[in-house]
Design goal:
This protein is mainly alpha-helical. The termini are far apart. The relative contact order is 0.09.
Amino acid sequence: MSETTASAASAASANSLAPASSTSSVTSAASAKSRTVVAESATIRGRRARIALRALQVLLALFYGVASALPKLIANSSAVESFDKIGWGSGAMYTIGALELAGAVGLLVPLLQSVAATALSALMVGAFVVQMTVFHGGNAATPLILIIPLALIAWARRGQNAELLRVVRRRA
């Protein structure tokens, strides 16, 4: 029997044995436990999920920092050509490169992970729109594919948003 099945069985048996007045407290404790994200749980499964999520974040940070932001920030000829075709020029190229680099760094900072993943997802929505309108769908799947792991990170690390708000409010 797995830990999840065992805890659900023990909660169910506690509910059946508990008096009516304490049933609601057991139920609320069980529902609070069910709302816990796997990546935040103390189980072996939770530990593995945290490791996999961290590995995904590092891979995405490397991709955004090295493969995506760096060519824009060093004005690689392919990046310059792409932004000239869009009609945005070098200012937009450097701005988007800086945003991607900031997102890559944010994916590695525990307090900023969810916000960075959300911001990079929004950037990928813009990239998808540009791919569809300017480049007629060429490479349009890439931003869509990247949104999936970014959304997963944003969701799994959403609990850190409250901590980030506390830090921001303390400084204000």
